[in-house]
Amino acid sequence: MEPHEQPRACTPECMPLPKGLLQGAVSARRRGPQKPTHLRQGFGGSSAGERNPPKHGRSVAERVPLRSYAFLHGQGFGLLRRRMKRIWPTLVIFIFSLTLSMSQSFSQEVRYKKFSPEEVKKMSEQQAIIHTKLGDITLKFFPEVAPNHVKSFIELAQKGFYNGTTFHRVVPKFVIQGGDPNSKSPDRSIHGMGGPGYNVKAEFSNKPHKRGTLSMARSAHPDSAGSQFFICVAEVPSLNGKYTVFGEVTAGMEVVDKIVSQPRDGNENPNDRIEVAVDIVTE
């Protein structure tokens, strides 16, 4: 066909039938209408097709795929049961862990309140100093964008909640993380899983996660932040808008760099404990 020609539509009347189909059509016309022989309902011998075997064409067993036919006769269910027995313990553990995680996330109080300009101003005049054996880190707060997170951190620090906790996670070119009360325990398997017993509602903002940023850790749910915080040792734009930034380091980044460089285990927990004590001071 030349490029300028248009394809012509062909109606069913003008389409030639293959020889085999033509002969089949003639034979069907001679035989007249046939009763349906397909499976109607039930399994195995309860089908209409098996009670009335077809006089023409293939049998039910020939027309049904082998695996489907095995299921129709109950053979496939045994295979399914055996496979379920293999994966059942893993499935139970997964469901239990998921349920426990969800219950912990949603059963705790989610704190949130609106603050007056005077309260925000007062929080902005306060600073935190994190004391470690490697030096001190001074923090400035951003109550104008995350007042609930700032308020929670200040209250916990004033109660001595953070004293004796450690930086339990250090990742070069990423963050150092602390604030978990479980890190007071020598049992390292529970480090990173604790909190204050309540959650803080997310206060995401356009504050970027750059070197020195102070932000709050959380689990999968946005409103699951508690006491665990992290300090960025590099710019991490992938965290922007997903975690609540509530302050930044104003002094002591060299201490942060020392902490993130400490030898650590497979869970990124420093081999030697880096305990902290937090003081709140007014400028």
Strand content: 15-25%
Domain tally? 2
- Name of the CATH architecture of the largest domain: Beta Barrel
Q: Which stretches are low in confidence, meaning pLDDT under 50 for 5 or more residues running?
A: 1-15, 17-28, 35-55, 66-72
Instruction: Give the neighbour order of strands across the main sheet.
Output: 4-5-8-7-9-3-2-10
- The residue fraction in helices comes out at 25-40%
What is the CATH T-level topology of the largest domain?
Answer: Cyclophilin
Query: Please, what is the CATH homologous superfamily of the largest domain?
Result: Cyclophilin-like
Question: Total number of β-strand segments?
Answer: 10
Question: What is the CATH top level name of the largest domain?
Answer: Mainly Beta
Helix-strand sequence: HHHHHEHEEHEEEEEEHE
User: Measured on Cα atoms, how large is the radius of gyration?
Assistant: 35 Å
Q: Helical stretch count?
A: 8
End-to-end span in angstroms?
87 Å
Mean pLDDT, nearest integer?
80
Query: What is the approximate shape?
Result: globular
Query: How would you classify the helix and strand content by structural class?
Result: alpha+beta
Biggest sheet record: 8 strands, antiparallel
